[in-house]
Design goal:
The chain has ten helices and 17 strands. The chain is α+β, with helices and mostly antiparallel strands and 403 residues long. The radius of gyration is 23 Å and the shape is globular.
């Protein structure tokens, strides 16, 4: 129990973790609905990720996890099907021990075979720190995260302190960070995170790129021009299966002279379609939803709304073809345009249903980064799935586990 005693104070207190492109799956084209939630100002966790304080916190976490490793790490937790409060099982003792080592469970709660309310609360804390749904329900993804060895977590911290350190300089008075593995956007002002938004980012085989750019404009009710890669990979197969797919989704076809064609003028069982432009009309079904945030870059990606808001509720939000979809995007846009438009004007532009553009008075820096482990001055250490395999540590992606 030496490791237990040494690590019990690693997390002095827990900060509750806060809570999208295009023709990929049927679910992405399902009718959207309003999530009803708001992107609240960050209370009690105003620490921006790319700062010197994060570097210092990561360095402290490395020291703490080094102690854990030297003292034998933590036990492997056997898989148990859906434990509930009051359950008794031999696997619960190693679970409690594991949670004590990283400070999610107070040592005074003890190591025994009962899954009590203290253990459930500790599991919720652990889940939130690892980007999992913090419901206290032990699924395979939670067991997988619990059983990543301490040595691997230490190497993950060491890998990411280098990434954060390289970007911990002055990034601007106001800037935006999208952490791709966390599928989260952070709006930063004067060094503090003032908004955090849940996002959806690229699939592992269509990864969102690491980049630096500037946000220059917001488009309300935009057209969507289908990228050639999506025409080839997604639209052609869709049309082979559903000949009225373009009509149902208000996607028009144009030849190289700008003339509109009918869908029966295209051979969908060849690559003929790649010679044309496909453009989706604005509206509720538009793949970008009601808003596009323009940020010119070499990858031709951007940030936008989506009609498929149900996807924001998923634990693993890697569904796009490279662009980033933002939950409650109107709150984010109101922050982007705060020096030019009132919130009422933003809401009106959305409700009006007409094409409109708002150019930012000053371009705003945006950074898409890949941080799978970080820590804050409050002592909370966060880990995320290495969904794109950039860490090279051999951790099996959570997406490979059933929910």
């Amino acid at each position: 129990m030496a490791a237990t005693a040494a690590a019990a104070a690693l997390l002095p207190r827990f900060a509750q973790a806060q809570n999208i492109d295009m023709l990929n799956q049927g679910a992405e084209w399902a009718p959207g609905f309003d999530s009803g939630s708001r992107a609240a100002p960050v209370a009690g966790s105003r620490y921006a990720m790319l700062t010197q304080s994060t570097v210092q916190s990561l360095e402290q976490a490395i020291q703490n996890y080094s102690i854990i490793v030297r003292q034998g790490g933590w036990p492997q937790v056997p898989y148990v099907e859906r434990l509930r409060v009051g359950s008794r099982h031999s696997a619960i003792a190693p679970l409690r021990h594991r949670l004590i080592v990283t400070g999610d469970l107070n040592q005074a709660a003890g190591v025994h075979d009962v899954y009590d309310s203290y253990a459930e609360t500790a599991v919720r804390r652990f889940q939130a720190r690892n980007g999992l749904t913090p419901d206290g329900v032990l699924r395979e993804s939670t067991f997988a995260a619990l059983n990543v060895p301490a040595e691997v977590r230490l190497r993950q911290l060491e890998t990411n302190v280098v990434r954060v350190r390289s970007m911990a300089g002055f990034l601007g008075d106001r800037y935006v960070v999208v952490n791709l593995p966390a599928a989260q956007l952070e709006a930063v002002q004067n060094g503090n995170a003032v908004l955090r938004h849940t996002t959806i980012v690229g699939k592992p085989d269509r990864a969102s790129p690491i980049l630096q750019a500037k946000i220059v404009e917001v488009n309300f009710h935009p057209f969507w021009t289908v990228p050639a890669s999506i025409v080839r990979k997604d639209l052609i197969p869709k049309m082979q299966q559903e000949p009225d797919y373009l009509y149902k989704n208000r996607i028009r076809i144009y030849d190289q002279r700008g003339r509109e064609l009918a869908s029966n003028q295209v051979d969908w069982f060849s690559n003929d379609a790649t010679n044309y432009m496909f453009r989706q009309d604005p509206g509720e079904q538009n793949s970008m939803g009601t808003i596009r945030v323009n940020m010119p870059n070499q990858h031709a990606v951007y940030m936008h709304d989506t009609p498929s808001k149900n996807l924001f509720g998923e634990e693993l939000r890697f569904h796009s073809s490279g662009c980033v979809r933002i939950q409650n995007i109107r709150d984010f846009v109101a922050w982007l345009l705060r020096d030019q438009w009132s919130r009422e004007q933003v809401d009106y532009a959305i409700a009006a249903g007409e094409r409109a553009d708002a150019k930012l008075s000053r371009a705003l820096p945006v950074y898409w980064v890949y941080i799978t482990a970080w820590a804050n001055p409050d002592g909370v250490v966060q880990f995320r799935d290495d969904v794109y395999g950039h860490d090279g540590l051999g951790i099996r992606p959570m997406a490979s586990y059933r929910s």
